Every structure is written in C-alpha cells, then in structure tokens.
C-alpha cells in the first residue's frame, strides 16, 4: 500500500510525463529504489542514510520542494539515529590535493641572466689574455757581453720562452666554446581554454581545450548531492551526499567527456586544472557536461 509521500511523488512524476526508467536516467538512482520510495518500502535501500538523500533528489527532479515535503512527512521517515554515517560517506572522503612542481623550464629562465653574465665575463677574460700574450712578444735587440762579443736576441721565428703550450690554448678555446653553447629550453605547456557550448533544460555544456593531463576538483561549502560519470556512463563519483568542507578530486587524463549531476549546485565549486567553472544557470539541481580536446 502506498504511503502519502510516495503517492505524492508518484503523482508528480506522472504529471511530468516521466517513467521510472526516465527518472533513473535523470537522478542516477536505480529504478528499484525509486519504486521503493513510491511504495514506502525503505528496507530495500542500501542504508537508512540514503533514504532522505534519494527522496530529496526524487522530489527536485519532479519539481517539488524537497525540504517542505520531508518536513510534512517526517513521521513516515525511518529512524537514522543509529545509522553509521561514516560508511556511506566513505566514497566522498576528501582527497589530498596534488602539489604541482614548478616546471624545470621556469627554473632555467630564472637562472638565464646569471648564465649570460658569467659567459660574458669569461669571454672578456679570454680576449684580454689573448691580446696580452700578443703584445708581450720580445723585440729583436742586440746586447754586448762582458768579453766584447755581441749577443743577438732571438728572432721572431723562435718561440719565446714564456709562450704557453699551444695544446693548452686549444683546450681553453674548447672549454670557452662549450660554455657558450646555448641552453635548450623545454617546450611550454599548451594554453587552456574553456568556452560555453550551450544549455538544454537543466544541462549546461562546456568545451575544454588544454593539456592532456587534467584534474577536476569538487569543493562543497554546504550539504549537496553529487554524482559524476564518463562518456561510457561509468561512475567517476558514485551518487552520494557531500557535507560542507568536503572535497573530491577526479583524474580526467585521457577522458573525452565528464557529466556532473549536482543537487544544491550553489554549494558546489568546480575547478579544472586551476580554472574555475562558472555556472550560467541559476538552478538548484543541474547537470554540468564538459567535453575535452587535447591542445596540440
């Protein structure tokens, strides 16, 4: 026998023209749980903690005020005081944010002025040393010894005693050439761009172009119902209720699509690779779809 709240929900669903299969696609709640809500059979639920969340999602999907409905029929709700909250909420435990290391190209760019100054000093020292040796060659002069014999200074063809070994000069040239080789910079990260593709009822679609490695951060400032699936309708986040202060990180590397179902959307903040996703619809319950394209 149907209870009063289940009857009211079923009537609202029929007025919307939804079958249980349609409502299952909208809310991501299994059809047997939706039928159990209409029949007032809460014993089949995965846990008493889920009863209020599923009823609230059902009500919002068919256009009813969920809080008002639950307050009017609170006597029909099962007692959840003994329910272990930590178990159903384990899937929504906050994940640690990954620290992003500073790209090595940035460190090279910071040190580049120092490298250039050092090379400039080396070149100046080398040129000074070279010209000093060129000017230091002795000129020819004759000197007279004590016994009256004349001494002829070595000719230009005779290497001076102070001249360094050519092999050492060649080694110095090679070292200077090695120091002057330019440092190759690593390629910069591709730029990211996110644009609005359009809206259709409760669904807003965005187009994302950027790095192949991407990460979506979900942060909740108040109680909200959250679910996420990929392009194959596989769960990235199982449907669950998140509390204020909780967060969830989804690795979307290699994914071409993500669909988020949000209840109490104003309480949910979405950030993709550090870029915030701005809502364009003022709806409590809505879908956010992001389609990805890797930047070349």
Order of helices and strands: HHHHHHEEHEEEEEEEEEE
How many strands?
12
Runs in which pLDDT lies below 50 for 5 or more consecutive residues are 82-102, 139-147
Give the helix/strand class. alpha+beta
- Tell me about the largest β-sheet: 6 strands, mixed
Shape: rod-shaped
Chain oligomer state: single chain
Q: How many helices?
A: 7
Biggest sheet strand order reads 3-4-12-9-6-7
Mean pLDDT: 77
The percent range for helix content is 25-40%
> Radius of gyration, Cα only, in angstroms?
38 Å
Give an overview of the whole structure.
With 296 residues, this protein is α+β, with helices and mostly antiparallel strands. Helices cover 32% and strands 24% of the residues. The strands form 3 sheets. The chain has a 6-stranded mixed beta sheet with strand order 3-4-12-9-6-7, with helices on one face. The chain has a 4-stranded antiparallel beta sheet with strand order 8-5-10-11, with no helix packed on it. A two-stranded antiparallel ribbon has the order 1-2. Helix 4 packs across helix 5. The two termini are 61 Å apart.
Helix-strand blueprint:
Elements: H1 4-16, H2 20-27, H3 31-39, H4 49-61, H5 66-72, H6 104-135, E1 142-144, E2 150-152, H7 166-179, E3 193-200, E4 203-210, E5 215-220, E6 224-230, E7 235-242, E8 247-251, E9 257-263, E10 268-272, E11 275-276, E12 286-294
Parallel strand pairs: 4-12
Antiparallel strand pairs: 1-2, 3-4, 5-8, 5-10, 6-7, 6-9, 9-12, 10-11
Helix pairs in contact: 4-5
């Amino acid at each position: 026998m149907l209870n009063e709240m289940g009857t009211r929900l079923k009537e609202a669903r029929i007025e919307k023209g939804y079958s249980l299969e349609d409502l299952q696609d909208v809310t991501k709640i299994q059809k047997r749980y939706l039928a159990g809500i209409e029949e007032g059979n809460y014993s089949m639920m995965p846990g008493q903690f889920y009863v209020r969340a599923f009823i609230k999602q059902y009500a919002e999907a068919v256009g009813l005020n969920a809080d008002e409905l639950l307050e009017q029929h609170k006597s029909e709700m099962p007692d959840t005081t003994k329910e272990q909250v930590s178990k159903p909420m384990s899937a929504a435990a906050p994940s640690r944010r990954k620290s992003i290391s500073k790209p090595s190209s940035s460190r090279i760019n910071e040190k580049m002025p120092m490298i250039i100054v050092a090379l400039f000093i080396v070149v100046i020292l080398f040129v000074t040393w070279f010209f000093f040796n060129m000017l230091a060659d002795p000129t020819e002069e004759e000197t007279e010894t004590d016994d009256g014999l004349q001494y002829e200074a070595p000719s230009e063809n005779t290497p001076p005693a102070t001249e360094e070994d050519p092999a050492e000069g060649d080694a110095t040239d090679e070292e200077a050439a090695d120091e002057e080789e330019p440092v190759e910079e690593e390629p910069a990260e591709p730029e990211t761009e996110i644009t609005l593709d359009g809206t259709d009822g409760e669904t807003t679609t965005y187009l994302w172009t950027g790095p192949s490695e991407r990460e979506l951060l979900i942060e909740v400032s108040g109680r909200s119902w959250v679910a996420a699936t990929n392009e194959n309708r596989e769960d990235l986040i199982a449907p669950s209720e998140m509390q204020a202060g909780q967060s969830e990180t989804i690795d979307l590397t290699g994914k071409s699509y993500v669909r988020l179902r949000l209840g109490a959307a104003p309480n949910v903040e979405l950030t993709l690779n550090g870029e915030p996703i701005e809502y364009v619809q003022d709806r409590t319950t809505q879908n956010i779809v992001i389609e990805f394209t890797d930047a070349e």
